[in-house]
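Our consortium's second objective concerns turning raw sequence data into structural hypotheses that experimental partners can test. To show how far this objective has progressed, the report includes one record in full. It was chosen at random from the queue rather than selected for favorable results. The single chain below, 189 residues long, was entered without modification.
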Amino acid sequence: MNHGSEYDGQLDETLHQEGVGVPDELERLWTPHRMAYIRGQNKPADSEAGEQCPFCRIPTLEDRQGLVVHRGALSYVVLNLYPYSPGHLMVCPYRHVADYTEVTAEETVEVAELTQQAMRTIRDVSGAHGFNIGMNQGSVAGAGIAAHLHQHVVPRWAGDQNFMPIIGRTRTLPELMAETRDLLADAWS
């Protein structure tokens, strides 16, 4: 393949190595804020409760700062810092517990009730068509923070998985997280 010279608009073969520097006609969407997630900066160093665990730390913050939407007696509802879709919430027990089999009957009931209320609130605020709800138990199952149980409530809309996450490997969120938190917190009944 002849790349020509740089004088005729092409890169000289000596200017690149195995494709480096060769235009690929793809746009770039830079998201440097995601490096905190990739590097695990918000993940606890161990499985102990306390300041290292974000789900133990969040309830000590003011609601808006911690993105807390609602506080129950045994658990709370918080926006996910790395959402799959707008309004992606998590229901977390206050108690530092990792395994679903270790939650009390009372915690189980409250997590279920808050999950139901989260669905109603998200539907009222955003008209979600459906939801993905679940817990990833253990890091091998996909839990980003395996040491503290949390249930995901992910709103879904018809056609929400367009080309951006599939081809562009990018999620689009049309609203700032603080605004989403305020909408959901204000609508929570």
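The partners drew two points from this record. DSSP finds six helices and five strands in the chain. The longest strand covers residues 151-156. Both points have been shared with the crystallography group to help prioritize constructs.
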